[in-house]
Structures are given as C-alpha cells and as structure tokens.
User: Which sequence fits this backbone?
C-alpha cells in the first residue's frame, strides 16, 4: 500500500479528519470509482476505516454541528437526527453502505422527517415561552424550519452527487 494511502487511512482511524468535506475528499481519493451504495469491489482495509470515520462523524455530533451551522435561524433538530440514526440502524437495508452520514441524510429525506419535526417544533409551547402559539405563528415557524432544514440536508447531500 502506498505511503499516502496509509497516511489517509491512519487519519481516518484516529479521527483526525472529522468534517463532511474532508471525509468526502478522502473517500474520493481512496475510492474514486466506488459507488457509495456498493462497496463489494472495495478492499475491506479501506472500507473499514471509512465506515468507522463516518460513524464517528455522526455519533460525535459533528454532523449535527454542521447541520446547525447551515440552519442558524432555526437550529436543526437533534431529535430529528436521532430518529434518522435510529431508523438507519433498524433498517435491514441500512448496511448497504459504509457511509453512515449519507444513509442518515437520505433517511431524513426518504421518511419526510423534516415535515414531522418542523410541525412538532412549531407547536411546542416551549418554543413560545410556555404559551400555545397562534395557528399563523406556528405555521410561519414550521415553514421556516422546513425551508432551512431541507436546504441544509440537500446541501450536504450534494457532496455525493457525481458529474
């Protein structure tokens, strides 16, 4: 194995790289022709460190932090992300990729979790200083959260688009 590949694998194993952009950069270098959904042609000594790095990225709350950096007006819901992680873990198809972050982000879209959590958040009295919001207030907050959260998830998923 070449020295530069060994260095990349070491950085993955030690979690020195822990942002979506940098993990994707390394993923592209190590697996330039691999499909994120099909790892059958990729050697295990490359898949294992990548899978571990993506799991660490999600479970160390770096995915949540990056999502929240993209949604400053309506911070991304940690409960939404927790449900997506749980759904991926429980999904028999969840092992179809080494990339846990990609699986979680696509699960958010596939299960319409944004709509559910935006609606729940917008009607939560805790968001309104303990009072029940008026219908128009709740609707405005719901739409704002849906807009920001959807944009953030799609922006992150664009990192896996191929040209």
Assistant:
């Amino acid at each position: 194995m070449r020295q530069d590949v060994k260095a990349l694998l070491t950085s993955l194993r030690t979690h020195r790289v822990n942002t979506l952009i940098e993990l994707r950069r390394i993923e592209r270098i190590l697996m330039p022709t691999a499909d994120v959904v099909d790892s059958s042609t990729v050697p295990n000594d490359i898949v294992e460190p990548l899978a571990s790095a993506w799991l660490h990225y999600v479970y160390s709350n770096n995915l949540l932090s990056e999502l929240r950096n993209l949604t400053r007006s309506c911070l991304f819901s940690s409960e939404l992300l927790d449900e997506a992680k749980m759904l991926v873990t429980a999904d028999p198809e969840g092992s179809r990729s080494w990339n846990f972050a990609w699986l979680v982000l696509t699960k958010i879209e596939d299960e319409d979790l944004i709509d559910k959590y935006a609606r729940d958040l917008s009607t939560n009295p805790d968001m309104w200083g303990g009072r029940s919001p008026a219908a128009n207030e709740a609707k405005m907050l719901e739409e704002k959260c849906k807009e920001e959260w959807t944009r953030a998830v799609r922006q992150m998923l664009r990192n896996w688009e191929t040209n």
The first helix runs from residue 3 to 13. The two ends are 28 Å apart (CA to CA). The helical segments are 3-13, 20-30, 44-59, 62-69, 78-90, 100-110, 113-122, 135-157.
